[in-house]
Q: What sequence folds into this?
């Protein structure tokens, strides 16, 4: 079952879900009090079978389980969970100082092994280490490994939130699609590693130019995307031209000058996320048709200015 606690509590560890599996009532109630003071979402089970069902239902980030129980034991549960998720953090508790149990725990990639009676300081330290790893994994899962900026999956999540905020408060925002021109020639003649250096360098240039509130992500391949809150399309155009100027003035080792093309779209109430992105893509396509190295704003009107 899940323990529901008022959301007004200031929990020590936000956004970390816990599954606690323990069949001994006294120990369970004692540690649940400790966990509920620190986590906003705690689920508990009295055996491995129930624990596995709760795992599939809630997908917790941290599992704390006693080894020996009347029904399915925790090692069997952990083995099944590990087949689904190699990264979930697991803390095992046991009253048995048994080498076989310890070895089986290691074979199932248990992260921390704590003997009963539980030393609270040791238990809290294990939690702290597990939460740190959970948060690190979450951050890494949102980051593009080549360019070290946000990845597309996370950006789409942020964009959905920004659309909701914009509609609620009637605040403007724009997006900018940026494509690196002719990067495939770099990959062909100098190798993909050199192409990755170009993408990484451009990512650094852009992130140093934009505001802290702006959201920058790799959209895919040689494309990046920018979300600029509180900014209409004219303001986004000024920013895009500034970024274009910085990139074209940078001397890339063994390559020289790299150029980029830009497409801009502004959000308006009622517009769908997919339509907003399609508008930016249409503007970017126009920039490429015009010979690249320029900025186009949607709606496309008249002659596009060559930057």
A:
């Amino acid at each position: 079952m899940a323990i529901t606690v008022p959301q007004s509590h200031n929990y020590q560890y936000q956004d970390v879900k816990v599954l606690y599996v323990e069949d001994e009532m006294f120990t369970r109630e004692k540690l649940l009090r400790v966990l509920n003071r620190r986590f906003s979402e705690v689920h508990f089970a009295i055996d491995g079978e129930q624990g596995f069902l709760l795992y599939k239902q809630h997908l917790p980030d941290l599992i704390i389980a006693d080894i020996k129980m009347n029904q399915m034991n925790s090692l069997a549960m952990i083995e099944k969970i590990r087949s689904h998720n190699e990264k979930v953090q697991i803390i095992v508790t046991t009253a048995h100082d048994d080498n076989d149990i310890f070895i089986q725990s290691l074979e199932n990639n248990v992260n921390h092994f704590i003997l009963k009676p539980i030393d609270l300081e040791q238990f809290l330290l294990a939690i702290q280490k597990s939460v740190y790893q959970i948060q690190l994994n979450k951050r890494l899962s949102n980051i593009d490994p080549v360019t070290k900026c946000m990845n597309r999956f996370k950006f789409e999540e942020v964009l959905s939130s920004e659309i909701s905020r914009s509609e609620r408060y009637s605040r403007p925002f724009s997006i900018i699609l940026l494509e690196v021109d002719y990067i495939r020639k770099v990959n062909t003649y100098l190798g993909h590693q050199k192409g990755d250096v170009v993408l990484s360098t451009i990512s650094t240039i852009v992130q140093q130019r934009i505001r802290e509130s702006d959201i920058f992500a790799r959209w895919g391949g040689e494309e990046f995307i920018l979300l600029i809150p509180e900014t209409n399309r004219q303001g986004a155009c000024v920013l895009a031209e500034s970024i274009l100027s910085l990139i074209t003035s940078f001397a890339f080792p063994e390559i020289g000058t790299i150029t980029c093309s830009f497409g801009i779209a502004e959000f308006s109430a009622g517009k769908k996320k997919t339509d907003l992105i399609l508008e930016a893509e249409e503007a970017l396509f126009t920039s490429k048709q015009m010979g690249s190295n320029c900025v186009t704003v949607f709606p496309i009107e008249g002659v596009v200015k060559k930057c």
